[in-house]
Write a structure and sequence with these properties.
It is a single chain. This protein has about 160 residues and is mainly β. It has one helix at about 1-15, and strands at about 20-30, 45-60, 65-75, 80-90, 95-105, 115-125, 130-140, 145-155. The chain has a single domain (about 15-155), classed as Beta Barrel (Porin). About 10% of the residues lie in helices and about 65% in strands. Strands 1-2-3-4-5-6-7-8 form an 8-stranded antiparallel beta barrel. It is globular. The relative contact order is 0.20.
Length: about 160
Amino acid sequence: MKRLVLLLACFFASSNINSQEFGVKGGLNITFFKATEDNFGTNPSEEIGYYGGVFVDIEFKDKLHLQPELLFIRIRDFQFLNAPIYLEYDINNKAHVLVGPSLNYFFDFFSNKFKVRVDLGFSYDLTQDFSIHMKYTLGFEELSPNIIFLGVGYKL
């Protein structure tokens, strides 16, 4: 983890940061469980929840951005913090592909409360400040769920 922070700091120190924007985002998530040992009532294979949080969009090269986020996610009584760190590529002025690690802290479900997962996403700007997005979070461990996020974002 220390190496990742140091690598990101060196990367930004050597690059030109063109602009920085802040925003909020939220929406629905569909969670797919890989195991029947989970503790969600009748052991469903999927659940619908919601999420909300903040993001920073940092443009540092033409068509490349870094977009860290901090999201609160809730699925029934199950809740956790999700902090993806996306490398965003602009396909054109409105369409963007996002990929990166997702750092997660689970409040009350797993004995190992911290997990690292991988996100792949797509966003589309409806206006200069308002966008829609979809992302997929892939869990690697047996009890780490995969999640699809469908939502909206607004740059402040």
